[in-house]
Write a structure and sequence with these properties.
The complex is a heterodimer of chains A (478) and B (258). Chain A is built from 18 helices and two strands. Chain A has 478 residues and is an all-alpha fold. The chains are: A mainly alpha (478), B alpha/beta (258).
């Protein structure tokens, strides 16, 4: 019922637009009144006065529905000791009643018919409460619908009535709309800050267990050793303590991202140069979307491509030339990731190269420069900042990537710069620390927030750098 | 007819240009005398810029543009011959565009760009000398001598256009094509460019497309009037602007159409 009434409000608002506009026009043509605003704005004026009050009441009714239900059902008349119940017990009984109410509803003619086993388990007062609940839902639904017929219609007619030539609808409408627009952008900003602060507060919790310096400068990462200690009496207990060193994760992240960039930068940039300068517009129109598909392939697909095809291939090749390659290598993950981020480099670079004014190309050709000289000496330098921006965005993407690493580069932290060895990344460890049944009272889980915050700050810095560079580039030939 | 007379820097005949199926130039023949300024005038879309761009093969980069005709440089070099590398042609035939288009590099780099590509200077000192000399000839040196390492896009519009002229003459061309070089400039900057053209005529053959008839009469000794892809009339500038042979020319210069 509640959702039906929402649809009704939308339809009604839409119709009132025409009604309000018609009224304004009839004032203008039949009564020769001068309108203070354009006729459309009288329509919007009525719509806003119908829509917003109705929608606010609608949200109110939706949010407080369960409160009304409880007030109505859990009356002290039926349950004299309700005030003394714990919230857990209250919830259980409420749940039972609401289940009962479904049965009551199905067999409302005769309670003795139907599945009586559940009814038998219920007390007298619970069954009465269930009936009340069923009735409440009906009444609530119908009263809502009535409310949503009467209220918007009434408001609509009042608003339409208030239209006169003197009423300047435009500033009122614009003010309301500007609040709506402002509100929408504040919601996005608010959510960003919300995420940031939730990370910060949980990270602070983590640092209650683990020393700040230990996290950022320890070279060992092994959050799961707690259970090993019990099983290994006689070993050096200190060496087996769980460790939360961030360093191997950072090096792993940088190693895999570097491999990815070594793939994506040359391939992406050469692709961009080809698309922007050499390809015919037909080829470009077809090739560009196809290349962009690479970025749209789910990362899990890259993950099993890397794990099942690429990694064994690298291992075979490596062993063929006598190099020790592990089954899960940073190289495999980095290569797959590099392919994935090619479109970030190629598409953005293509756009900035295309944005270099044609007049610069002509200027260079007119001096007798060849196409390749023009690209190397004029186009690329002019587009350089934008191209750097595309690299930075690609790096941000590579650093944030998780799934490929989970599948292809192992979960074991390994302080190495050798791409043939396994490595793990920050994001991957966030996933593993939060997988399964977790409790947020130990550092093994809370470390996810510290890692998340670090990653957030890292990508934030990269993004700021990218934006700054792109801004600088914009000023260049304007 | 192509005349073997080497008093002409550039001779053209039977020139046809098509953009796709649309004809832009229809059988034009025009010769450009050495060390003189020739103006190409005519209403918008008459083909004068298209014709100008044929002379250093700038139309090559436009896929749908098809150029036919005879073009002889110095009486003996067919500029559309497959043996001619377009870059070496453009070394001899420089161009200045309607809108100043300095590279987003330093003032020095802008002028040194051409000499570096064509290997004109044998040493850094010689290159410095060429840059200085070109800026001097373009009448810009005094204004920029203390800020050669500033980015050229920071110059005013008129300075930028003179920089583009310096850039064009730095490779020591024989011919300079100018495609409405003053249309984006204010009257003072325009006057400076016109003075410059008058000085440059001593060493270069200049072909200038212009919308301003007063400019054509001020700077050029020969004038060609184009209309709808046809060359209507060609002759001494003084004659074209005072006693044109064709009525169409007369209508245009007196402002009755165009």
């Amino acid at each position: 019922m509640l959702y039906l009434s929402l649809v009704f409000v939308f339809i009604l608002s839409y119709s009132f637009y025409f009604y309000g506009k018609k009224r304004a026009l009839s004032l203008k043509f039949k009564k020769n009144e001068n309108l203070s605003s354009l006729p459309d704005y009288y329509g919007y004026y009525v719509v806003l006065l119908v829509f917003f009050p109705a929608i606010i009441i609608w949200f109110f009714l939706l949010i407080f529905k369960s409160n009304f239900q409880e007030m109505f059902v859990m009356s002290p008349v039926l349950f004299p000791d309700v005030a003394t119940w714990s919230s857990g017990k209250f919830g259980l009984i409420m749940n039972k009643i609401s289940n009962l109410s479904i049965i009551v509803n199905l067999s409302e003619i005769d309670l003795t018919v139907g599945d009586k086993s559940i009814l038998k388990m219920a007390s007298e007062s619970e069954i009465i409460a269930a009936k009340n609940l069923a009735n409440f839902d009906k009444i609530y639904g119908w009263s809502n619908l009535t409310l949503f017929i009467i209220l918007p219609v009434l408001l609509g007619f009042l608003a339409t009535k208030s239209i006169s030539g003197k009423l300047n609808a435009q500033p009122i409408v614009e003010k309301i709309i500007s609040y709506v627009i402002k509100g929408s952008s504040y919601i996005a900003i608010f959510i960003t800050f919300g995420i940031f602060f939730s990370l910060v507060f949980e990270a602070i919790n983590f640092f209650r267990y683990v020393n700040f310096m230990d996290f950022f400068f320890n070279t060992a990462w092994n959050p799961n050793r707690a259970f090993v200690i019990n099983a290994s009496e006689g070993f050096d207990q200190e060496a087996l303590k769980e460790a939360f060193g961030f360093v191997p994760l950072l090096t792993g992240t940088l190693l895999i991202a570097s491999v990815a960039m070594l793939v994506a930068v040359p391939l992406g940039l050469l692709t961009a140069i080809y698309l922007a300068e050499y390809a015919s517009s037909k080829v470009r129109d077809i090739a560009k979307p196809i290349i962009e598909i690479l970025a749209g392939i789910p990362t899990v697909v890259y993950g099993f491509f890397a794990a099942l095809s690429l990694a064994p291939f690298i291992k075979d090749v490596g062993e063929g030339v006598g190099l020790p390659v592990s089954a899960e290598s940073a190289l495999a993950a980095g290569l797959a990731m590099g392919v994935m981020i090619i479109p970030f480099v190629s598409s953005l670079s293509d756009d900035v190269i295309k944005a270099v004014p044609q007049s610069l190309r002509e200027g260079s050709y007119a001096i007798g420069a060849t196409k390749s000289e023009t690209i190397k000496k004029v186009i690329l330098p002019a587009a350089l900042a934008g191209i750097m921006g595309s690299f930075l965005l690609a790096i941000s993407r590579a650093i944030g990537e998780t799934m490929i690493v989970v599948m292809a580069a192992s979960l074991r932290a390994n302080l190495t710069f050798n791409p043939l060895e396994p490595a793990t990344t920050i994001t991957t460890q966030i996933v593993t620390s939060l997988i399964g049944d977790v409790e947020f009272d130990n550092p093994k889980t809370l470390v996810a927030f510290a890692l998340g915050l670090t990653l957030f700050v890292m990508t934030l810095i990269l993004n700021i750098a990218a934006i700054t560079i792109v801004k600088k580039y914009r000023e260049k030939y304007e | 007819m192509v005349d073997q007379n080497s008093n002409y820097a550039l001779q053209t005949s039977e020139v046809y240009v098509h953009y796709g199926k649309k004809m832009a130039i229809n059988n034009v023949a025009l010769n450009f005398p050495k060390n003189e300024v020739t103006s190409l005038i005519g209403p918008s879309g008459c083909g004068k810029s298209t014709f100008l761009r044929c002379l250093n093969r700038m139309n090559d980069v436009i896929d749908i543009c098809n150029v036919k005709g005879k073009f002889l440089l110095n009486g003996n070099v067919d500029i559309y011959s497959p043996d001619i590398q377009v870059e070496t042609l453009r070394e001899k035939v420089g161009m200045v565009f309607q809108k100043p288009n300095p590279f987003p590099k330093t003032i020095y780099e802008n002028v040194a760009y051409g000499p570096k590509i064509h290997g004109i200077a044998s040493s850094q000192n010689e290159l410095d000398e060429i840059v200085k000399d070109s800026l001097h000839r373009a009448g810009l040196y005094e204004e920029v001598k203390d800020r050669m390492d500033d980015i050229a896009t920071g110059l005013s519009g008129g300075q930028q256009q003179r920089l583009c002229i310096a850039r064009a003459i730095a490779i020591r061309p024989e011919i300079i094509l100018m495609d409405e070089p003053c249309s984006a400039l204010d009257p003072i900057a325009t006057a400076k460019i016109e003075d410059l053209i008058n000085e440059l005529r001593e060493n270069y053959t200049i072909i200038i497309v212009t919308h301003s008839m007063s400019q054509a009469s001020r700077v050029s000794s020969k004038t060609a009037f184009f209309h709808l892809g046809n060359l209507v009339e060609y002759g001494e500038t003084g004659k074209i602007f005072t006693k044109p042979d064709k009525e169409q020319t007369n209508d245009y210069i007196t402002g009755r159409f165009g």
